[in-house]
Write a structure and sequence with these properties.
globular; eight-stranded mixed sheet; Rossmann fold; binds adenosine-5'-monophosphate-propyl ester; seven-stranded mixed sheet; 21 helices; alpha/beta
């Protein structure tokens, strides 16, 4: 187990509960009986959930787990994912319903109905086909939150191509690694993106990434910033093509082909414990079933009535599952906002909620804590009475932020769903059910109906109520990852070897049961940090640091941070020849990490030290470095090879060296 931070200790003493109101319970999509129904016959339960979708051919078997840990769900079934997210809503008479209220950062807007979305996706599907993209090919997408991002993802799904979305904040180096790993044939990006009122280049970064790339045949460029961007958009004739020229010229008719339930839908890269990101593979039928089911049940979504807003970016799994696939499969009307929460002012989210009468709002604890910092008087200026469900995802939410969220944003009455899941799980796994669960600030509480999770000790034995240990998933679920792209061994090793005897999926999170048996998540137990809900591996940042010529050795830890959950703190030993050991060196190293990985990985703090604490076998003792980073008394040093190292580090830091 990792040591608990003071914030988590505080979290574990929280004991308030908030039962649902009768009024909410009466109208809720979720019913308490669901747990028992699912337990009685899990496969039957999931078969019923799969009937939310429209299948071209019904499956013959719900689950084939004979080749575990490689699952097959809804075996023999065929469907088209994009048809399920778009066309069928038009066919059922809802073509005029707004699918997306899009809001650009500078204030421009677009409302897109399902009928329009169908045309756009069909044209984009035809466009990709015209470029030679066929089922099974990989299309990399690096785009900000513009409608074309969603259209591009659905167009891929429609023709059976896999998308690999790369977060816009990732560096050219990071993009290139992902393009190469998946052998992407096409890249979709934009000329530039608006960030805090300014236009910043995107295409130039993509060009830098693709220099010498072997697999990329075409780059499609969405015109977003146009003349606002300084300088020319770099262009490679024969390879680059404007989205509007290519897509607008296509017919709006496209017949969706039905693909196997296990046909790959997308790859999404995430950080693991080594420096190399993993391409998490998701497939079609099971994934869409679980994202649709959870979006319906956890958010209590009512098509045609609710206005939903998930503030994630499509570069992360939350954007895939809860902006694109789950909500659209459920005929959502949703807000998609391009910009940052404080552009042009700190009330932007509340202004949007007021204007569009948003009723379901799903965001991350780091943002909630930022809103708290900005002050309750800001949301108080807006009418937020349309809100009826609030969601949280990405990291443990501290009770203080939970209560603030409920009181200040939810008028003291909206249910809060604290949803635990991962890129790998594809969809929500542990969460309260609004209208059913008496919620507890800080606890994700209970595995959803149809899902099974346990907290176990080192031996894989379930801990009793009140006990802590590792979170595992002990039964396969429909939206589970189907592997790590191109690396079956890494898939087995990372997720299935820790509790191989029991056949449990090891999530990498520490957790605890309270006296009622509810689950509390305690953060990662491996070398993965969680910064503003973004997963970053310590090794990844260490590799970036040591790739700089002045760095001899580096160790990175995630230190508790009041706003971002964790902050990246690096300890570096500079090479003897590095003359500048001061602020400039540190600043340069921070920028170097941003260039290698992306600005999200920039260390909050870099400390230049003479030595690193190591065990006799040479393993860095991060626990001790965390003590330093969090200004705590330094823990047990007896297993250090040289116990005086910590004194050396502390005295160096105290003397400001
Ligand atoms: O540590 C858990 C944390 O985020 C990790 C998964 O990160 P990622 O794959 O990027 O997906 C984030 C969005 C689903 C988990 O291993 N995490 C996510 N949600 C919660 C959480 N920790 C505590 N409570 C949550 N609700």
């Amino acid at each position: 187990m990792t040591e608990q931070s003071p914030a988590l200790d505080n979290l574990l003493t929280e004991s308030r509960t908030f039962p649902p109101s009768e009024q909410f319970a009466g109208q809720a999509n979720a019913k308490a009986e669901l747990y028992a129904t699912a337990d009685a016959d899990r496969e039957q339960f999931w078969a019923e959930q799969a009937r939310r979708l429209t299948w071209d051919t019904e499956w013959t078997q719900v689950l084939d787990w004979t080749n575990a840990p490689f699952a097959k769900w809804f075996v023999g079934g065929k469907l088209n994912v994009a048809y399920n997210c778009v066309d069928r809503h038009v066919e059922s008479g809802h073509g005029q319903q707004v699918a997306i209220h899009w809001i650009g950062e500078p204030g421009d807007t677009r409302d897109i109905t399902y009928a329009q979305l169908k045309d756009e996706v069909s044209k984009a599907a035809n466009a990709l086909t015209s470029l030679g993209v066929v089922a099974g090919d990989v299309v990399a997408i690096q785009l900000q939150m513009v409608p074309e991002a969603i259209v591009a993802m659905l167009a891929c799904a429609r023709i059976g191509a896999l998308h690999s979305v790369v977060f816009g904040g990732f560096s050219p180096t990071a993009l290139r690694a992902r393009v190469d790993d998946a052998a992407a044939k096409v890249v979709i990006t934009s000329d530039g993106q608006y960030r805090r009122g300014k236009a910043a280049p995107m295409k130039a970064n993509v060009d830098e990434a693709l220099e010498g790339a072997q697999t990329v045949e075409k780059v499609i460029v969405v015109a977003r910033t146009g003349d606002d961007l300084e300088g020319e958009v770099p262009w490679t004739d024969g390879r680059d093509v404007w989205w509007h020229e290519l897509v607008e010229a296509q017919p709006a008719e496209h017949t969706p082909e039905a693909f196997d339930s296990e046909h790959p839908l997308f790859i999404l890269y995430t950080s693991g414990t080594t420096g190399r990101p993993k391409g998490i593979l998701h497939t079609s039928g099971g994934y869409l079933t679980q994202v649709a089911y959870t979006h319906h049940t956890v958010f209590d979504h009512k098509p045609g009535e609710d206005v939903y807003w998930c503030t994630a970016d499509i570069g992360w799994i939350t954007g895939h599952s809860y902006i694109v696939y789950g909500p659209l499969a459920n005929r959502v009307t949703q807000v998609v906002y391009e910009g940052t929460p404080n552009t042009p002012h700190e009330g932007r989210h509340w202004e949007i909620i007021q204007q569009h009468k948003v009723s379901i709002y799903y965001t991350a604890p780091t943002l909630i804590r930022t809103f708290m910092k900005w002050g309750a008087d800001i949301p108080a200026r807006y009418d937020l009475s349309s809100l009826r469900v609030l969601g949280s995802v990405g990291e443990p939410i501290n009770p203080e932020a939970w209560i603030w969220y409920r009181d200040t944003i939810g008028a003291g009455k909206t249910p809060i769903v604290d949803t635990w899941w991962q890129t790998e799980t594809g969809a929500i796994m542990i969460s309260p059910l609004p209208g059913v669960t008496a919620t507890k600030p800080g606890s994700a509480q209970r595995a959803l109906p149809g899902i099974s999770a346990k907290v176990v000790d080192d031996q894989g034995v379930e801990v009793p109520a009140g006990g802590g240990g590792y979170l595992v998933l002990d039964k396969p679920w429909p939206s589970m990852l189907r592997g790590v792209w191109g690396d079956d061994e890494r898939y087995r090793e990372t997720y299935w070897s820790r509790f191989a005897d029991q056949g449990f999926y090891f999530a990498g999170d520490g957790a605890k049961y309270d006296a009622d048996g509810d689950v509390w998540l305690l953060g990662r137990v491996d070398d993965v940090m969680n910064v503003s809900g973004h997963r970053i591996s310590t090794t990844e940042v260490e590799s970036a640091l040591v790739s700089h010529p002045t760095v001899a050795e580096a160790a990175v830890v995630g230190a508790t941070d009041p706003t971002t959950g964790q902050g990246i703190v690096a300890f570096v030993i500079l090479r003897g020849s590095a003359t500048d050991q001061g602020d400039n060196a540190v600043q340069e190293l921070r920028n170097h990490v941003a260039k290698e990985i992306g600005p999200i990985a920039k260390p909050r703090q870099i400390m230049v030290v003479p030595e690193l604490p190591k065990t006799r076998s040479g393993k860095i003792m991060r626990r001790l470095l965390r003590d330093v980073a969090e200004n705590r008394a330094i823990g047990d040093v007896t297993t250090l090879a040289d116990s005086s190292v910590m004194d050396l580090i502390s005295s160096g830091l105290n003397s400001g060296k």
